[in-house]
Structures are given as C-alpha cells and as structure tokens.
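Hello again, I could really use a second opinion on something today. Take your time with it, there's no hurry, and the full record follows here:

___
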Amino acid sequence: MLKALLVDDEINILRNLQSVIPWENIGIEIVGTAENGAKALELVDRLRPDLVVSDISMPIMDGITFVQKLRERGITCECVMLTGYQSFEYARSLMRYGVKEYMMKPVDYDELERVIRRTAASILEKELKAKQEQRVRNSAVNLVYEKNLHDLLLDCSSVDIHLALDEEGKKLDLNRAKYLLLLVDLEHYAQLSLGWDEKERKLWNFAIYNVLSEVLCSENRNYTVLQMREGEWCLLIEQAGDHLADEDINRAGSWAELIRESVRSSIKLNVHVSIYVEWIPISGLGNAYKRVHWESSLSPASVTYVAAAQGQGAAQIQLDMLWKLTEDMVTGLKQCSRMKTEEAMQALNTHLKIIPDSSLLRVRQIIHYFVLNLIREMREVNMLTQSEEDAIWVKLNQCIRVKDVLLVMNEMVSQCLVVFVSKKTSVVLMESAQAYIHEHMSKDIGIDELASTLGISNSYFSLLFKQHFGVTFVEYLTKLRMETAKAMLETKERRVAQVSKSVGYLDGRYFMKLFHRYTGMTPTEYRISRRN
C-alpha cells in the first residue's frame, strides 16, 4: 500500500477527503492528517508518505511554503494541491517544486479520484523503474566484484579497491576483507565427462553452479561462487562483522558435507571439497587457492583440510617448482605462445631429473594430475577430437613409470601447439567468446562486455560472431538460455521464477513471453508435456 498524508485547515474538507475517495481500492493508506503546513512537515519527517494532498491557503505555513520545505529536505513525494484561488503565480511556483497536479475548490471528487489514481500509478511506475535500475547496478557491481576475485585467485591481478563497490556505488575497503575458501571439484571429472558432448558438459556444470549458489543461503552468510574451470568451483565465504570467528572455521566441515549432500541429492554426482582452514586476506587469495588446488589433487579423502605452509624444506621447494612449471605450460598454451610453452616444457623435463627418489611417488601424482587437467583445458577450447582423446586415455592406462606419463604429456603439449598455430585468430576468438557466454549465461551479459573481454571492437565482434555461428549474439544467447531452461524444467522440480532467474532473466513475465515464442508453450505447459 502507498501512504498518503492529507493537509487542510478546514475540518469538513479533511473528513470528505478521507471518506469520499476510495483510498483502499486505489491501494493507498491514509497515515495522517494535518491542519497546516508546519504540522504536516513534522508528520512527513516521521511518516514518509508517498503522496500528499494539500490545500494552498492555510495559517502558520501555507501549502507552497510547505512544498518548498519538502524539496529543501530532499523529500520527493508526489503532491496534489488544492486551492480556492485561480492564480498563474500559484501554478508557476508549484511547477518549480515539481508539483504536477493542481485543482480548484470546490473540489470535484470524481475528478480528484482520477487525479489520485493517475498519481498513484505514476508513483508505482517510478518505484518499479528505480528497482529495475538498482538491480542492473547491483548486477554490474557483482560482476565487477566476481571478476576481481576470480583474477586474484588466479594471480592475474593485484588488489584494486576501485573495482569493488557496494550496492550504493561506494568503494569497499577490500584490504580489510577476509575469506574462507572452499574448493569444490567434481570427482573423476575427466573420465566422467568423456562421453558428454559440449552441450551436456555445459549443462552439468551449470546445474552444479546453481546448486552451489543456493546451498549456503540458509546460513545467512555472504558468499561468492566462482567457476574456475570445467568441473571446479571456488566458494569464498566472507567474514561476518569485524571479528574473525573461529567457530566458522570449525563449521566449514559441516558446510563441506552440506555441499556434497546437496550436489549428490540434486544432481546424482559426487564432489570433493577442500577447505583452507584459516581466514585469508584478499591479497592472499592467489597463494591460498594454489595451495588448496595442489593439496586437493593428491588427497584421497572426500573432504580435505589444507593449512597454510609452515616453512619449506628442500623437497617441498622442488615440488612447488614442479607445480609452477606445469602452470606456466598451461598458461603458455592458453596464450598460444609456442616459445613460452616450450620453455616451460624444457624446464620441467630438466627439473624432473634432479628430484630425489624419495619424492618420485608425489612427482608421479603431480604429473598424472597435470595430464588430466590438461585434457580438461584442451576440451574447453576444442583442441581435442573424441578419437584423439580416446587415444590419450589408452596411453595413460598403459603408463607404469613417471617417464611414461611424462612422454604422454609431451605429446599432448606438442599436439596443442600444432592445433593452436593452425587455427585462425578469429576462430580462437569465437571459441573464447562461446566459452565465456556459457559460463556467464545466468548474468546480464552483452556485446560490450564480450568485446571488451576479447580486446576487440563491438562491430568487429558482431561481424565475427555472425560469420562463425550463423546467428547474431542475441539469437545465440536466447537459444542457449531457452534450451537450458527446457532442460531444467525437464530434470528438476523448480519454480518457473527460479528457472527464469537461473538462465539470466530477472523479469519472469518477459522470460515466459520469450519461452512461449520459442516453444509454443508456457513453461508450465512444457513441463507437463514432457512428463506425459
């Protein structure tokens, strides 16, 4: 209900205003009455009405002075003014203060009702527009915040407080922020996804992301879910208040089990969860993610607890160097840099020769892990055909020694370089765009964002996209969202509003309109038809 305040020094007019106009039917509640502008000003400060209906000629403080005082205090409620005098000077003064409705006495109550209905509709429309704009701002803020966190985890960025804003656009002091880090990895993803085509892989990843995005909502904690790559997500749980709560670290184990159970019950897949058991400042996210990533890859447990490193011996330093070199190799491949990739590969082979025998088992685990993850990376950028991947798995299954696994890794890296060099730049750009669209489908993404991410102009992006996919960006995104919505309606009991939000449409009515245009049915009708 909107709130209204009535102001007039004539008691009979106040009574008529209250009784003759069908306020409740219009959707308005009368929250107060006043006999002059001074009294009304006190009530406005306390009651904050959406609408004021006021006389102009009143003792102590007249209506025009009252409206002037309202605007000086920054109060923007709508005003309908009544007067017994027809004066252009009155009208001009009121217009200066944003008053749109001005009526003569004696009051025509039928006309006044129409004016009030029109004004109420205008207030609601303005509020709806403000909420929509706020949602867009919040979405943009969240995207910037998530992008900043993602880059910090991958050590691709330094802390930049200018990239973090609250909902009102004010800068946040990220230097004071602390996080708990939980790494969620789909168990046996490389082998599990072997039989999935691209659409299935995207759908399964999207389904797990949705579960993770909702799993801790009941805990009333602020947290961010970031997909680091296919089959892997980071949950960053923000510190609550100014104090670090040890009980939150203790509760992390129960949160990990909740995550595992939620994914298992919703999607029938198993995930491994690793917990970094210390609060992490934002500047330490990169090192913490790296350590959790390494330790979790070698842990057989379903939930792994990872502590900060307490000093490093010679063996640990050598193993850390091994991790760094494998990461450098993947980075070189992603950047299509033959020189950087080959340098990292040569350094890796050299380094392996000086690893002591006591560490060879761990070395084998690391290299085996790297090969599995290299397969993941190659899939994401379409560098492997199904037959080529099948051949790699056959070779891996035949490996007995570290040297054998290393040989497979060398062959894979060489194969990646050949594929990257042979591809046209435009193809690489569009494959990167496609991966980005699938990853951010649930967000408010547009051509500006994608073109900026790829480092090209909007017009060039649109041209390449249409040439590569045969449809425009909007047509591609709409089809992707509609197909994903269809799959969600078929596979899980979710309200239509939840499905709409999950595929990137905050306006449920707009989603239903698009869905009907795309399928010829409403979402509910589609769900029933698939069941039948």
Notes: The beta strands are 2-7, 28-34, 51-55, 78-83, 101-104, 178-186, 223-229, 232-238, 271-281, 303-306. The first strand starts at residue 2 and ends at 7. The CA atoms of residues 102 and 393 lie 80 Å apart. DSSP finds 22 helices and ten strands in the chain.
